[in-house]
Each structure stands twice: as structure tokens, then as C-alpha cells.
Amino acid sequence: MHSILPSVVSRSQSATRTFKRRSIIPLQPVALWRIKSGVVRTLSWLEDGSTITLGLCGAGDVVGKLLCAIDPYQIECLTEVEVTPLSPNEWCPDPAFLLARVQQAEEFMLIRSHRRVEEMLLKLLTWLSKKFGREVQHGHLIELRLTHQDLAEMLGTTRVTITRVLKQFEQQGIVQRLPNQVTLLQPEATWHYEI
Q1: Of 107, 104, 78, 181, the residue nearest 139 (C-alpha)
Q2: Contact indicator for 58, 35 with CB cutoff of 8 Å
Q3: Alpha helices, DSSP H, located in the chain
Q4: In which region does residue 49 sit, left (phi positive, over 0), alpha (psi from -120 to 50) or beta (all else)?
């Protein structure tokens, strides 16, 4: 992962905190959090209450309001998460970390720019399999428990639509679904999938 540890370890960094799945990581008084394990999503919401996923971050990443100009801003745990607090003056970001963060934001923006939900979901599953997956016998297992609602919020669509498209993908042999997990079958072929 990214090398983002400050050159000097302070007392505040040794205070690892654990948050349960679906809990919210506080933004104050800690300016930044370094993720030791687990996955979080950063999010905001519109005036009508619609949730907008800004990004997904895992072990080695740093998150916090200081890194985002969007308001409101929230950090939600998608798994059990261990984090360490960092103050801005303790954090010396590696340029590779900042570059990876920009690239991830661009990838996420490109995924959301497709017009058809089928294309967006396929691109999202491929991206998730690369970032949070591992190779298994028949494809890539996405090792992240996401609900259909989570996927819908990431793509700006409805839970019902995601359920329909996932069933369609399963029938077409693109994904295999088991309780709380998805395996993307033949991930190299999915980029050429046409609706």
C-alpha cells in the first residue's frame, strides 16, 4: 500500500481506535485518520437527502475533513475499521499517496459518467475487484460486504435497479453471488461486455 507514515511517531498515533461496521468515524477533534485495517467510504448528501459516495479507502489510506472541500462530509465504516489519529503537522504525505488519491477520484468519476446502469455497475464491480478483491479459481472475489443499497448510492441509482442488474449479470455468467459476497467471473472479459 501507500507509504504515508510520518517520520516521527507521536503519542496520538499510538492510540488506535476500532469502529464497528456502519459506524461513523468522528471528524473532530481529530483532523485526519490513518486506516490500519478495514474499509471506509467517504460521503456527502444532497439537499433532498440523497447520499453521494465520494470514495472508498482501505488500509494505508488517510481520510479526514482536511482532505475534502465538500460539505457536508462523513466517513462511514463499511467493515470493522482500525484507525490511528494524525494531526496535520504529524502527517508527511508521500507524493505517491496523493497521486493515487487523485487517480482513484478520477476512476470513480469515470465509472459514474456512464449513461447505462449496467455499464456503471460492471465498471464498479471491476474496480472493486481490483482494489478490494483477490483472485479465486473462477475470477475475482470482492472481499467487501456491500448491500445493494450501498452499490446504488455509489452509482446514483436505486436499490431495485441494482438488484435487477445483478440478477441479469448472474444469469449471463458475469458474476456469481453468494450471501454477502460477489465473485466477478472472467474479469478481463467484462470490459468488452455490451448491453
Answers
A1: 181
A2: yes
A3: 95-112, 117-132, 148-155, 159-171, 187-190
A4: left
Q: For the whole model, what pTM was predicted?
A: 0.79
Q: Read off the C-alpha cell for 65.
A: 475533513
Phi, psi of 57, deg, nearest 5:
-130, 145
**Which residue type occupies 46?**
L
Burial of 126 (0-12, 13-18, 19+ CB in 10 A): buried
Model confidence pLDDT, tens digit, residues 65-114 = 888 888 899 999 999 999 999 877 777 777 888 888 888 889 988 998 89
Determine whether 4 is exposed, middle or buried from the number of CB atoms within 10 Å of its CB (0-12, 13-18, 19+).
Answer: buried
Q: How confident is the model at residue 123 (pLDDT cuts 50, 70, 90)?
A: very high
- Distance from the Cα of residue 146 to its chain's centroid: 10
Pairwise CA distance, residues 164 & 170, whole Å: 10
Cell 475533513 maps to which residue?
A: 65
Q: What is the CB-side half-sphere exposure of residue 84 using CA atoms within 13 A?
A: 19
pLDDT digits (tens, 9 = 90+) for 84-94: 998 777 777 77
The grid coordinates of residue 153 equal: 448510492
